[in-house]
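Forum > Structural Biology > Help requests

Title: Can anyone predict the 3D structure of DUF1868 domain-containing protein?

Hi all, first post here. I have the sequence for DUF1868 domain-containing protein but no way to get a structure on my laptop. I'd be grateful if someone could post the structure tokens.
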Amino acid sequence: MQDDPSMPAGSRKKFTPDGTSKPYHGHSVICHVPPDSPLRPTLNRIRAALASHPLAQSILPGECILPDESSHMTVFICVRNRERGENVMPWLGAHAQAAVDQIGLDGDYNEWLDYTASRVAALAETLSPAAQPPYVLDLAPEIPPIGATIGLRLHPRDDALWDLREELSAATGIRHDNHDDYKFHVTLAYTVRQVMPDEEAELRAVVEKELVDAPSTVVFPRVALCSFEDMQNFDVEVVLGDVDEHVN
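Reply #1:
Sure, ran it for you. Structure tokens for DUF1868 domain-containing protein below:
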């Protein structure tokens, strides 16, 4: 299934122009939005408002507005099957170089999943107290610029997530170019075409209207390595930290 070059770069690998999900295998460390989180009703209201907006058919068709069960905050991007450049694959440390030598940068994706899962499982046994959940973040009242995605911006209250990212980088050997200035977020939808300034203003107003009554803080009690075949669902592979399970 070829990518459509007319679509935004961040969505063309994940969706077709009609909003059908494309295969996009990968795994990342994420925090699912808890089922009882006060943020859930806000997310559902935003989804409904976007889906009913006149621009939805041309900008957010099909499966581009992500379902409730996919709601999560990405903490650390690991391996994605279609992104195999040296700068986004494991490279830092002897363990990462050994994996590259054994599997190959373009090697079998499932072998890379096994590698990451084993590294994260080992980290779960030694994760420092400073990097443990729960993670408390402030929800920004304004959303980031709308490009390939529509999402919410979150600001950590302390350094726990930054400490976690450092430990994950050391464990997996992955360190992206934006490692030190990563922006925490919850993605709500993907766009299938360029959004014009007046259209962005309309969609921004829809989302930010619902944020007026949203909770000012969001708490994530659990963090896990999750795999995905597309953007519709994220399956837990390894629990890294869970307040209820008292990991470590």
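The first helix runs from residue 9 to 12. The chain has one domain: 9-242.
Shout if anything looks off.
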